[in-house]
Design goal:
Number of domains: 2
Radius of gyration: 23 Å
CATH topology of the largest domain: Arc Repressor Mutant, subunit A
Largest sheet: 3 strands, antiparallel
Distance between the termini: 63 Å
Order of helices and strands: EEEHHHHHH
Number of helices: 6
Helix content: 55-70%
CATH class of the largest domain: Mainly Alpha
Structural class: mainly alpha
């Protein structure tokens, strides 16, 4: 737990990992956006954080960079393992869905969309 000068705890460890106090936002969520090179204001707004919360998260990440990065890599590894598990578990179901012919209503809508697309392309020329 990281206390601020005003005595408030800003980063806490929960069952989800390192979390910004009073939110469900983990530091790993913030790191994802930082690694994607989103601007800080965008990240703060996406997560609806106050300036104080955002600064506290960045400060914690910077001060504990090695440990946070190691945990982040574990989170990524775990997420990938979970994704692979569910992909494998649902492989047959996805194949059945893909092999199912579209319903007649779907086909009618698809044809209508194709007609409108052709009309739009004709007016552009």
């Amino acid at each position: 737990m990281t206390p601020q000068p005003n005595g408030k705890v800003t980063i806490v460890r929960t069952e989800r990992g390192l979390t910004i106090a009073g939110t469900r936002i983990t530091l790993y969520d913030v790191i994802d956006h930082l690694k994607a090179q989103y601007p800080p204001k965008f990240i703060r707004d996406v997560f609806n954080l106050t300036d104080e919360q955002f600064r506290a998260a960045l400060s914690y990440i910077e001060a504990h960079q090695t440990d946070v990065e190691a945990e982040y890599q574990e989170v990524l590894k775990s997420a990938e393992e979970t994704r692979q598990y569910w992909e494998e578990r649902n492989r047959e179901r996805f194949a059945r869905i893909a092999a199912t012919p579209p319903s007649s209503e779907y086909e009618a809508v698809r044809l209508k969309l194709q007609e409108r697309r052709a009309q739009r392309e004709a007016t552009k020329q």
